[in-house]
User: Fold this.
Amino acid sequence: MKIATVKFSIILFALSLLLKRQAWRHPAFRDRLKERNFVAQFLARDEETGRWFAFRDGKFSSGAGRHANPDIKLMLKDAALGAKLLTPPINWLNQINAQKDFKLGVDGPEDLTNWFAQTLMMAQTVGWKFGIKMPDGMTRYCNMTNGGPVFIYVKDGKIVRMTPIEFDETDAGPWTIEARGLKFTPPRKTTLAPHGQNAKSIVYSPDRLLYPMKRVDFDPNGKINPQNRGKSGYVRISWNEALDLVANQIKQLKRTYGPGVMAVSHGSHHTWGNIGYYLSALYRFRNAVGHTQVHHNPDSWEGWYWGAAHHWGYTLRVGQCETYGTVEDCLQNCEMIVFWAADPESTSGSYGA
Amino acid sequence: MRRQWLKNPKLGIKLVHIDPYYNASAQFLPGKWFAPRPTTSPALAMAIAYVWIKEGLYDKEYVASHTVGFDTWKAYLLGEEDGIPKTPEWQEAETGVPAKDVRALAREWGRKRVYLAPGGWGNGHGGACRNQTGIQWARTMVCLIAMQGLGKPGVNMGNLQWGSPLDFNFYFPGYADGGMSGDLENTSMPVELYQRMPQLPTMNTPFQKIPRLSMPEAIIDGKAEGYPWIGKSIEHQFAKFSYPAPGHAPVKMLYKYGGSMIATMNNTHRHVKMYQSPNLEFVVNQSIWFEGEAKFADVILPACTNFERPDISEWAGLGGYGHHGQQQLNHRVIIFQAPAIAPMGESKSDYWIFNEISKRLGLANYFSEGVNEIDWVKRLFDASDLPERISWKEFIRKGYYVVPAEKEKLRAPVSFRWFWENRKKDVPEPQPLPSDYAGEYLKGLQTQSGKLEFECNSLKRFKDPERPPIVKYEPSWEGPHSGALFRKYPLQLLTPHSKYSYHTQGDGKDSFLLNIEDHRVNVGGWYYLVLRLNAEDAKALGVKKHDLVKVYNDRGAVICAALPTQRLPRGVCHGYESSAIYAPMGEPGKSVDRGGVLNLLTPHKTQTKTTHATAGANSLVQVERWDGKTEYISEAFAESKERGLPSGLRLEDRVPAQ
Assistant:
């Protein structure tokens, strides 16, 4: 047996041990394993070596070789690739390239293949510990609002308090600018714009949408009653019903009318983040599905993009100019500032204060 | 925060505030207040330039060596082109600011080293750029600073809001870098993040686009035209696009994600009509809150907040068009956004929702790459420079990392100093793109001449009668020059952004901010938006503090709580846009709204015909004490066929200001 084959087999065996161990250690992972009943088969296509993973009523079992009747298959071109891709730490460039080059693929119902892949990933992250336990029993987490970063204090699953971040002695020190015999140093803490100060309040807002809902007089297979939009009420439906309905409508409308039938419209901002953001998860989704783009106007910069840019360029700043070093230069050399339609006390630099 | 330093008399920096509203910054800081009528700032700017020319108070050497086209603009200002010298007296009729004050301001400015601070960031952004003369205003701002030697010590753009001396070499992606989008066309991912965080690329196949400002027309009438916002070059904005795109399907389904455009777009009873159109066969709204627009959906998918799901981000880390947005801060702070609590009710993260729909389309492994949200967070962490400074374990425990301030010797150079000193560009921004230089790479600006252009080469090549190569003053088409419309609706309504809400996000929702009287006022159990109006005007209208008033024009009517104030000149009122609450008191689209959606009243016509530029930050309205009636729809609105111009306004109605 080749070394790569041995290595691949050992890694797969280790993976099965990891699943068992994590299920034993972490109730969340134990619960996860109860969600599906099926058999997954890892397979190297050339030498037909592999390992199967079976999930039944929360019980997990695994064995070397090929299962007689797997529900899904994860196929790698050969054992060498399997060993390369599955040896931690994961190299994402290799993973992506293997997919692009059709050397790594899956076969079987999308729900099961995706669940299995995500479960394998979860086995590696389920033990991660977030936040700091405080002496008073609360846990302190961090988060980011559109108005600045915050400490979040949580007790019994509820947010009790939210404050700006005060730096501790291990954090870096601030800068100092010397100007006209004076020294200017910012305080070692974050600010929070007024529009971010209600972040906790709006998490617990009575206006939160808590369940999937369908308009009472909307029937996707009958009358849709568009004239009543904005007037008629809603009825609670299950996630499955909602998701099936949306997915079926996408498919049906594309089949009926052609490409571009679905427009995707988003605001200029969302809750803060790099993953769950409109420019991230939403863009990936809308590109995957295909859509008519609702093309934004440069809403915060109109006159600058359509006007000022012709005088000085800066189209990649939407017509606004560079601003580096201006705090220092202004404090040292400027004699007068003309605020013109400028209210930074209200707009907080957008995110600062 | 840094603005507090400006209060230090030892620093000796004099301040001036130009804004129709005596805004919070003018209130907080010292300095004289100039209150031009809304949309007339370009006239004020031209009068300042006129005084400088007449009295020799500008940097003639700099203008000769660093700019082009000055003589053409100078001739226009002196009246050689149209017979009207743009004197302080001339502007007084437009702006209402006394000529002597403008002359005094121009003289002091011309003799001092001055920072010009237009818009909230001090280099643009918001401010007066969103009204009918916003393009003219921004253009005059560049012309003024060009006359004073942009880049000289003490002569630049800013107000201490941007420009902090931070470390800009430490890499952490901003939101415009596209996260996990795989989108190499519509985000700045290909510049750096894609190499650092390999992922499956995603490409949208339909090339059909709808210009956002004309979305209701696209749906209802089946056609719309727009101009793109693409920053690669100056010329991209000239490429008109049309809906429908050749060979594409008409839009029949709308997937709305968060927010409420009824509150943030203009003349938004149009959006009510759009939603009620049979042309939309299916509307899904994925939102966290039941804001004004969600109630128009057929299916609502409840998303959770970022306190209930994992994420990772940098404070003011924008990327893309807001390169080094951290300059607005005192510290660079990167956060692990912990899932601090379980999602409320059955709400789910956007990622989960998209992945579940993707499953049903066979796309889940493509969408998610088979990993969970937290794995993407870790991948982004690994893609940044963070692992060189802090371990993953410590980062998710502590929750934040402060990037140390830059060493003094390594601080980024001052903007435009390189330009003033005729050196190669040396500030850390990757733009203009190399092919956009006409001469040697890094020498000069993005313009064709590489200099500041008073007479714009790009606008000579692209003919737009509303945007001539030199900036000229053309009064607003919804203002004192609007004839019959102005007689009917004599008050100019300013609708800027609120400090209490980030778009619609901070407003409504029963949050404690509702109890701030500067934001909303509880009258009879309902939180009404505040409408500020000049105290004399209020008296003439018989309106007292916190009276409920109807603010209206042909487009609709909104009930607000009045606040008479001296902070506005006569004829001007003020209320914040972006209400999260749309609360029609009868038939939606045909009744008064008490949610405070002032954008029901604002014009949606673009600033010029060949731009896709909102002009809605100023509109004409009338105000009266509310008679308690809930139905309101003007005949003009109901019958309006002419969607471009506000009904009642014809071009021939334009008359000179009184």
About this structure: Residues 425 and 442 of chain B are 5 Å apart (CA to CA). Chain B touches chain A through 283 residues (CB under 8 Å). Residues 641-658 of chain B have pLDDT under 50 and may be disordered.
